[in-house]
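Box 4.2: Ligand-aware structure prediction
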Amino acid sequence: MSQMTMQKLKKGKTIWLMGLSGAGKSTIAQCLIEKLRATQQICFGLDGDQLRAGLNRNLGFSEQDRSENLRRAAELCKLLNHDGITVVAAFITPLEKDRALLKSIIGAEDFFEIHIATPLEVCEQRDVKGLYQKARLGLIENFTGITASYEVPQSPFLTINTVGLDVDQCAIQILNKIFI
Ligand code: ADP
């Protein structure tokens, strides 16, 4: 096997799930990780909420801080991918300029931009963490979809609307499109 082919086989991918809060990113990410591990792939879950709770706890939700949060996450993905580890990342990632930055850091051939395109009304109805209610009451600033913008991704690798699908079906669609 050539050096080049071996290098390609050894490299991991970054499967980056983006979408509104409550869209289903973390739930689908968890399901993807279970399915990948069942095929002996080494993979790592990187979740925006978890990253903000520790490593990136000095960052808020201004446009600048969100961008920095994503940049650091992308640098981590790059390191892990180079070491053969596939990363499943779940971040709102609201702006096109930041998506372009992620792609440039991780590398276009390893970066899979998946838009979890659950409509705002559905996310708000689910309100898993009670955040939409707080945002509507004005208790949270810069809340994506309410008081901060979410730009619809213009060139995602795949778009999934979770309405009418179960988590498993969403994960299978993603894996089929990437690996088959
Ligand atoms: P996010 O990480 O995008 O903020 P979560 O994964 O925390 O969203 O929450 C999504 C909620 O939507 C969960 O309660 C999940 O059970 C529910 N849900 C319903 N249908 C789906 C689906 N097809 N895919 C993912 N989540 C779904």
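In the box above, the bound molecule is adenosine-5'-diphosphate. The radius of gyration is 16 Å.
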